[in-house]
Design goal:
single chain, mainly alpha, two-stranded antiparallel ribbon, 2 strands, 54% helix, globular
Length: 144
């Protein structure tokens, strides 16, 4: 089920699609990070964090706005006002803003359920929305 159209127009990705995409991405990054930490210990933990930052920054900041999980769920990160990709810097900012969304019992994630733009706190902090790809088609390949 998709969320209603926001004030800026167009449909938004629903909670369950976003949840499934986050779960897929968390498993991917978690497995890689876990292997690195098991093999390299504290250095592996640091490398796992770097890989997580690079994974989300590069893929969400790309022209497609899609991580592996988002691609599988047919959704993408989109600039709320600029109407396009968010770029690597904002992708990294969105990654770190997720921490703020998670701190108060994940309230920042659930915020999208009653927000007019279906935005989480990390979406609000960097000016993004998550949208279905069929409503906002990709102009290039993945990840572009």
């Amino acid at each position: 089920m998709e969320a209603a159209a926001g004030a800026y127009g167009g449909p938004r990705a629903g909670f369950w699609r976003r949840f499934a995409a986050a779960l897929i991405d968390g498993i991917i990054v978690g497995i890689v990070s876990g292997i690195l930490e098991a093999v390299l210990h504290s250095t592996g933990y640091f490398l796992g964090v770097v890989i997580g930052v690079a994974y989300y920054g590069w893929l969400e900041g790309s022209a497609s706005g899609q991580t592996v999980g988002k691609r599988g769920m047919g959704i993408r990160v989109y600039d709320l006002r600029g109407r396009g990709p968010i770029g690597f810097g904002r992708g990294v900012g969105r990654y770190f803003a997720r921490i703020l969304s998670a701190l108060p019992l994940f309230l920042g994630y659930f915020w999208m359920l009653w927000d007019s733009e279906s935005q989480t706190w990390h979406d609000k902090l960097v000016g993004t929305v998550v949208v279905p790809v069929d409503a906002y088609p990709l102009s290039g390949g993945w990840p572009s």
